[in-house]
Amino acid sequence: MKFDALTIDFVRDLILRKETTATALAEGFYRKIDSEDPKIHAFLTLTKERALAKAAEIDAMADRGDELPPLAGVPVGIKDVLMTREITTTAGSRILENFVAPYDATAVAKLEAAGAIVLGKLNCDEFAMGSSNENSGYGPVHNPRDLSRVPGGSSGGSAAAVAANMAVATLGSDTGGSIRQPAAFCGVVGLMPTYGRVSRYGLIAFASSLDHVGPLTKTVKDAATVLQVIAGRDKCDSTSADVPVGDYVSEIGRPVKGLRIGIPDEYFPPELDGEVNAAVQKTIEDLRTAGCEVKRISLPHTKYAIPTYYIVATAEASANLARFDGVRYAFRAKGAATLSEMYRRTRDGGFGSEVKRRIMLGTYALSAGYYDAYYLKAQQVRTLLTRDFQKAFAEVDAIVTPTSPTPAFKLGEKVDDPVSMYLADIFTVTADLVGIPGISVPCGATKEGLPIGVQVLGRHFDEATVLRVGHVVEHERAK
Amino acid sequence: MKVSEKDVLYVADLANLELTEAEGQRMLKDLNSILDYIDMLGQLDTKDVPPMAQVATLAASDRKDTAKFEYAVRADEVKSCLTHEQAMMNAPDTDGTYFKVPKVIDKSGEGTE
Question: Are A304 and B12 inside 8 Å of each other by CB?
Fold first, then answer.
């Protein structure tokens, strides 16, 4: 089986033309996972029974000659922060080691309703907190392009599974860059939709005002196809937006001639990796060649995004993770004599060190006497960051930047220095804070062969333009 | 140093975390290094800047005031939900109807937790 070539349309077409069956395909992917994953460790749980039952359904439809849904027979993987009914869902945390989800996340239910075959659950940083996947309670994921390097995080398993052809598409979540940065590190496409575009129902919360669900795929068109399926208002998530869903798949082909592209000075600092810079500059030239009008812009508050993020995200996380108390579900420390002792020992034994660090920081930022100095200040700076983008989007239709300041780093390289690890997200966090959509598309490689990603950002709810520009980047690179 | 050992213990208490001696020391170092970095926000004058309260939905709505959020409310109708068994299926300790926890009230009369 030529796994490399398998995109969503191709899979659907193979089934439609009876060249393969969804069942044979799913079995082929499980064999691939059996052979590849021991060295990559992208999957935490395989869901064979559910996958093969769904595949049989698709095959029956094909046999009857029914019209096949858009993701018919497409093997997908789900980041383990998204709930899957009757299947273990851990969020990469030991505290949820034996937690069986009672219902499906909306995004997962929509994928399956569109014919996708859920192969399994994917490794990630614990509660999606991390930039390297090294914070997983179940051991790190290795980057398929270079096993000594990290796949990025927190959706490291989601990116690695696509890069190693163990799934055609995956779902990830992005709170500070967790879809786009691993996509860049592993050489795949990663799309973070606008805040509210995709329901967060069934997504285990990290930071509720920053969490986004989105796809990781091999191509921009596949990302558009998955978004088409998972986007839209959901009555189970009151923050999901009541905004019409566009026709992303047909929009990507529209010409980009005359489209105005902004290049923000602040995203090209002197310390930017030389090879990353060269690849992104080449991409910008390609966009010019394709007829885009490229102009320099400024997003003056950029350097304040990381400190703002680490206040807002940790404050929200400290509140969200208060629910893990050992009472109603998941791990409970044994032998505690009092309720209070049980809470403490459960949380101490169940959470990893980065999660504790963030709970502590967030609790501190929200505690009496510090609220104004930290949380309120951060929310004010968030307004300034939003104004930066409003001003920029009055002049340009999309913004192009590197996704990450460096290619994938080595496992262990940054684990002892939280600030240096946090800076890995320097180009991605702002979009989460502002709520605008962004995509990372592969745009080159280093001399060592490590993938480089370019990021395209757009206006709120304008995923169509983000995908269109990403599609041109992909097309120019393929020439 | 912004945060002292005492602060670490106080915040751990607020967060219901029990840190070991080694964890406490590491936390002290890490929190101070992160807070030093966060200090740069002090460079910005935000006196007249409203704090952000809503992410993207407002950007997409031309309705006024509470009408912006009408889509997020629904009629108060009884609908199906998880069964009792489903809701309890992950409970670490249960008598079948309720969650069981260690005792909360100390009968020796020394008060409650």
Answer: no
